[in-house]
Fold each of these.
Amino acid sequence: MSQAPKDTRTPAEKASDTAGIIGSFKHEGYVPNPEDEAIHRQAQRGKITTEEAVAIFRERALEREREALARKRSQLG
């Protein structure tokens, strides 16, 4: 089995990339909360990759969207 290529970025480059992603989120209306900040800290410490953090945030956003649609449907019907 082949392994995913190793991330060759330096810690400074990883931190810069993470800061850029967070900046983009904030620009789009992201409001920091303790759960999200914990995920960011895990990514900064290297416990999870930036890609994993993005996947977590994407899944959480989809879940919030599903919940909002369900609330909207229940209000209409």
Amino acid sequence: METFTTHITFTSGDTHKEDPITADKLGSTITRLVRGPAAMMGMIKEVKIVDGWDCIVFLARDNKVVFPPNPAEKTEK
């Protein structure tokens, strides 16, 4: 079963790496870190979730999702 590791950077500059989680916990982890109390108080600077190959599967900075990109925000060229 594939696991994912969450890396958190706080506005203070401190970092924290959470224990690996499985795919079924991704949604609740993202919600907690982007919309939860610490995020609403402005304590979290960056949330990065990587897979077993260290590829980024989710990235948010200042409570804004950077990756994966939101297709609705793309503009036609």
Amino acid sequence: MTPGRGALLVLLALAVRTPILLTQHDDYASGGITTALGLVARNILEGRGLVETTGPDAILALYDRQQAEGRLIDIQDFPDPPDQPTKPLIQRMPGYPLFLAIVWKPAGGYRYLPVQAVQVLLGSLLPLLLYAAGGRLFGESAGMLAGGITALNLPMAWLSVVPLYDGWVLLVAGVVVWLLVRSDGRGHPFVDWAWLGLVAAAGVSFKSTFLIVPVVAAAALVPRLGPRRAAVRGAVALGIPLLVLLPWTVRNERIFHRPILTNTFFWATVWEGFGEIDNDFGAVLDDRATFAAVRAAHPGVIYASPEYDDLLRPRVLEAVRSRPAFLVRLALRRLARGLLLPDDRWGLPAAEDPGRSYAAFRARTGGGPAAYAAAEPLAAAIKLMKLLWGPVLPGLAVFGLWKRRDRWRELLPLLGVAAAFLAPTVLLHMEGRYLLPACLVWTLLAAACFSPVPGTPASGGRAAA
């Protein structure tokens, strides 16, 4: 790894991300979640604590206005009555609201743009991690390729602009990948897995499913180190996040009278995830519709509370018990879609404006694909590129893994990291952005396609193991 090439990758990443930041910083992508967490951050800075705002109507109406306008409204433009009703935060982890508060405190206002600028700067370091990891694994040229793909990866660039925790999950996953590759070259010393535990703790503060990453990565060490040594490292890497979560768990016990380790909404997520495809038991992929159905049967229940989650658990378990064929079909659909057709946002308005979609064009004109391509050549070209790119990266990763199959023990922990992000998505709910951390591993393996064949020294790196 050379400083000049690393700087070039950072500049390339900034060149991709900065135009998206400047032109689409107020896009409504995941705006409901962003607004809810933004209001939590404001409550922190206003001395109300880790609580979500649940009213009044003057605040709630802005949620609908944002969606109608397709535009994110800064939190400083929301009313802030001193007697606004609140509820303790439990639906999501506290990491992102705390990050917002940390940035907003010196910035002097509740605007998303400074937060997004910080995210873009940090996200531009992600190619450096892949460059370093790829160089250690497969040589300098493969490292540059991995870093270049990451710098130019438009879904990753877009995610760094969206004021949401997923960009942080992606960045922390990149650090985990780099740590695992570095640790393998050192024989996986105990201290490296302590560092991995600290990084995993940071990831869990943003998204609870990050907790399984050190477990799966340590399990993947068994063929290389044996079960005892792998278990010790896994215990350290998991024990540190659990210790960090202890104050949060004590807080939840005090407030909700149950020791909730991370957050609620597990059963609600599974139930609404069933609504991704047609079903005969009433599950729909819609927060409001699901809450309305639960509240009709249980008046007074609070949305996203532990009690709300409890009410959906029997519905999920009954569906699991009575419809195994449905579950298999849903999981296979998610797996195929996640690996081949994730349909991530690219941050290119021409392809993501609903008014310029093929469905809208066909509804207006009745024209087919050829007519659409003639009327919207740019949108059609980008959509075709997205369609083709979906299976390319996983396909190259499979070829790279086959090419370097002699090093499968070394690569197994990286595959474990990918599996740790893929499995919850397949089992719970599918959105393309949830799988981008796994794409970091696909990127490294794809770069292996262009590394020296086994038996020849890797340029700029160590010889093939």
Amino acid sequence: MKKIQKTIGIIVVFVVVLFACRKEQMEIGNAEDPCDCASEVSADFDILERHIQLAQSEFIVTDHVLGGGSKQVRFRAIEKDAEYKWFIGLDVEVEKETFKNFGSQWIGSTIPITLVVKKEPNLICFPDDDGYDSITKTFNIYDECHEPYLLEGTFRMAEKNRTDSIDITIDFKEYAPWYDCLTADITNFDGEGSTCPGNYFSGSKSYRFFQVGGTPSGACESIGAFKAWNHLNGVCEMKYFYRIDGDPNKEVNKHLFGRKIN
């Protein structure tokens, strides 16, 4: 009888310990804090430059812009579902996103932009947030031929998640018949040292973007639809295709990421 009681006691202790361990494991898996993804009301916004005045042209997030013609610059609030008030010179706008055109007379100017945002704050996560924020940013308007040329130089580029890289050089030059600053030699785009001289095409650009379009031709039979970005975070990006020996059946598409090295 004593032996049976002893056995039952051991079983009871084992069960108690087992459930205690399970309870501890359940406590380890705590639910995520809902405030981890929350943020205070912010008036931060992006400045976006359209590189050419065409409906299908790209808007590039930037910190400065190139002047000329009637350059469209957009301002986009990051905070959603709020009240917005933009102060752009003497103009006041109240949409989440707005824009202004800056003609060539603005070249050499520094433009201040202020955004005021009001929104119902998240007082559970941020009890001191009053739901109000304002930010002022400035940007310079450069002449397109007298600018810092962020996309001129040598760039060390590789495909995403690859370690083997190539150095691609973009060298802006003036070529006939354009004699402007929208033509550039592109060297080593194929990793074999080939150069596509800029006299076969005239491109378009903004402060952080350069593009040459069209179908490969002439001495540039091997390259086409070249696009290059120098993003705000310092990451450079290039997207283009080339044809080995100019053969349309041997087309290679590239989408590379990297950094400017000089």
